[in-house]
Please model this.
Amino acid sequence: MDLLKTKTWLWLALGHLAFAVGVVGIFVPLLPTAPFVIVAAYCYSKGSKRFEAWIINHPKLGPAVILWRSHRMIPLKAKIFATSMTGISVLWVGFLPQIPVFAKMAMFATVGVVLVFIWRCPSKIP
Model:
């Protein structure tokens, strides 16, 4: 198999993996969906124009990808939803006694960094 086909299959596999994690994120509150769909769209742009077109043209997934690609923008509604869901998850995990303190601290730090990133992105098209 030549290098180009290998790279195409690798991008396609990474796209499928990112998309699968994004779908899991629909059901798991601490796991975000949109960033993984955006990563999947990027991987598909390198490995499968058909899958890239499917994500971009999807009525629910496409708008987030298009806004991110064109303006590096996260809508205010999405920011509020992400903050609410991660806040609920962090509080819930914070009260679980079986989770070690270092794991809770790592989670708090990770969520903090992600939320700072989200809120620093524009909410409106410039």
The two ends are 46 Å apart (CA to CA). The first helix runs from residue 3 to 27.
